[in-house]
Amino acid sequence: MNIHYLTLFPEMYEGVLGTSILGRAKEKGIVSYHAVNFRDYSGNKHNKVDDYPYGGGAGMVLKPEPVFNAMEAMDLKSPRVILMCPQGRPFDQKMAEELSEEEDIVFICGHYEGYDERIRTLVTDEVSIGDYVLTGGELASLTMTDAIVRLIPGVLSREESHQEDSFSTGLLEHPHYTRPREYRGMEVPEVLLNGNHRLIEEWRREESLKRTKERRPDLLSDQ
Ligand code: SAM
Q1: How is domain 2-149 classified at the CATH fold level?
Q2: Whose CA is nearest to atom 23 of ligand 1?
Q3: Is 5 one of the annotated binding-site residues?
Q4: What angle is formed at CA 214 by the lines to CA 209 and CA 218, rounded to 5 degrees?
Q5: In angstroms, what is the span from residue 160 Cα to ligand 1's centroid?
Q6: What pLDDT is recorded for position 223?
Q7: Residues 6+ apart with CB under 8 A from 26
Q8: Ligand 1 center–CA 199 separation, angstroms
Q9: What is the pLDDT of residues 96-141, one digit of tens each?
Q10: What residue owns the CA closest to ligand 1's atom 6?
Q11: Rounded CA separation 155/17 (Å)
Q12: pTM, 2 dp
């Protein structure tokens, strides 16, 4: 998979994409990351990427030319082009699964008041990572990248498997315990110590259901 970011702040990507599982996925050749500064494609001599809104009002608007020019320069066959936008479809695990099968993904990251509406003609999806407003799309695109890349086969090791993760099963995940068996008076549930795999599975399933009912009953009604 090739992931491209159209951004005014390519330096924001280096640390996150070079670290831990995202960095390993790149080293293994499973994914490549390309942060492109669309200021380089402004098409004007002052490298201006934003301008005042027609009709007046506060804030600056991202001009169409830099984004169109940068997209054309990338010349990708049939990418998923995702506009990071608080007004978009809310991102979730299902969308991460769907996107993990793509060949090329482009994230367009805004950083001002808004986009010139004509930029929307370039995109296949408008996506929000939650009902709050960030200063720019960079952190949102990194959040999505993390959720997507870990689902690509070969990225996680068997121990790190995502099959049992919250949302993958439609439920929240069951509680976990590790050594020591007793810590400050808090005991590990007996069922996890007896080696009976059937009973352990049953306990995990019940705990998973209980946790989902308590914390996210909306997930149960989605099933
Ligand atoms: N004026 C815009 C509005 O009210 O919809 C918000 C612009 S925001 C300050 C600047 C940029 O941050 C957006 O263009 C988008 O790329 C990104 N952004 C902010 N919040 C986001 C969210 N919840 N999900 C995805 N991207 C977001």
Answers
A1: Alpha/beta knot (3.40.1280)
A2: 86
A3: no
A4: 80
A5: 32
A6: 62
A7: 17, 18, 32, 33
A8: 47
A9: 999 999 999 999 999 977 899 999 999 999 999 999 999 999 999 9
A10: 113
A11: 13
A12: 0.95
